[in-house]
């Protein structure tokens, strides 16, 4: 039975009840009205007839009383709704009032008459010449009541039919959105979560439509999220297991097969003991017990065994699996990650860091040796050469013409000593730039560039120095100096460049980093050499990386070369 029919039926029943109650009230009202009307008419009739019948001769003079009374009754006719009959003393009917002409020949239904007709008894008036019987007749009043109620009933029936028709049509239009709602719900039941309801003119159905659309969107989002989670679990590189409280594996992703060599069918339904070696079982049991009892996440680095019996280093994250409906623990979730490569990488990083420290130490010791050699050359060899030059000069300045050969030899000694002195001085500068010790990094770089310009007059060199370059310690200064020195040497030997730009500055991104950039417009180098296979570039890379910095070499044949080095200066500023 449809809602539309049920609503119409309910309205019909209510209407019928209303009509029945109204009809009862009206019939009862008519019954009382008729009763009062007949009773009043009877009393009036009795009073009238009593007053006349007591002295009928007074009405018609000279006429016998019975005859006079008869004539009077004939002249009066019917009195209200009463039938009047006159009897003589012998009980013979002398006179009977004529029937009512009002609605003559029509009568109300018997059942209606029985409902509303009053039970008014006949009244007998006795006189000296006979007696009068007054019989109340309510048939005309009942007929009037019937006509009124019938008209009212027709009106009620028409109203009832029109009301049901209007309600039926209105319900049909109002409930028409239900078909679309049912169709959308049917589509959703079949799995089509993209179904949406349109806007409705009815605020109630519009609210239902909005609620349905939000529910459908939520279900679609939840389904998409579940699909993404399932895809993540399926494509995750970590092995994911779900372990029931009895130790049975109820779910595992494909990474289990890749990591342990088992088929998925072999793992699902099996106990987790197939993966746990004997020497790790006790520790694993303790962790599992803590997860079950305290419902907390646990992290464990241990070993698990493969199908072939090999041991692999793993990191396991164990979390409780809680039923959201009753907050009861139903199992545990295991995320297992292979740590073999990670540990190898950590070991390699530790070894690389040690190599960097060793490289840095070698360079530090090398600079110390260069500094020591330069000092020895300056203090010892330099003084000896100066002494030889002084002695030779003294011999050459003697005023003795007899020893011309000796004078010539002395001048040769002075010339050779001067040359040796210049060579030693040049070696000292190569070993240890004295400007770093006396003037600072900026002046040392300026001197280096000026020397390069002097040695390579055909090459235009531009030097750009940032601020605060003289606030670093010896390690930073010598590293930056050597990088620039090696880059200029490479340009001089290999680049055939006509322009070189040297830029030293603090990083705009990180003020604790100094950036060294040397670029030229030379013939460039191929990608193989940019990786540092040339000895000079290799030395720069080792020096930079040993210092914890970063080196980038950007070059293509015939497009020049740019060397960018970044050096951390944290804790390396001079105190």
**How would a textbook summarize the main sheet?**
5 strands, antiparallel
Counted by DSSP, the helix tally is 16
Kindly estimate the percentage of residues that lie in beta strands according to DSSP. 15-25%
Described by the principal axes of the CA atoms, the overall outline is rod-shaped
The ordered H/E elements are HHEEHEEHHHEEHHHEEEHHHHEHEEHHEE
- The oligomeric state of the chains shown is single chain
Query: Which structural class fits the helix and strand makeup?
Result: alpha+beta
Folded structure, characterized:
By secondary structure, the chain is an alpha+beta fold. Helices cover 57% and strands 17% of the residues. The protein has 16 helices and 14 strands. It has helices at 3-53, 65-76, 110-116, 139-174, 177-189, 203-235, 255-260, 264-267, 278-294, 340-396, 404-431, 434-438, 441-455, 474-495, 527-533, 535-546; strands spanning 82-88, 93-96, 123-126, 130-136, 239-244, 249-252, 298-305, 311-323, 328-338, 460-465, 499-506, 513-520, 550-555, 561-568. A five-stranded antiparallel β-sheet has the order 6-5-9-8-7. The protein has a five-stranded mixed β-sheet with strand order 10-11-12-14-13. A four-stranded antiparallel β-sheet has the order 2-1-4-3. Strand 11 (499-506) and strand 12 form a beta hairpin. The protein is rod-shaped and about 220 Å long.
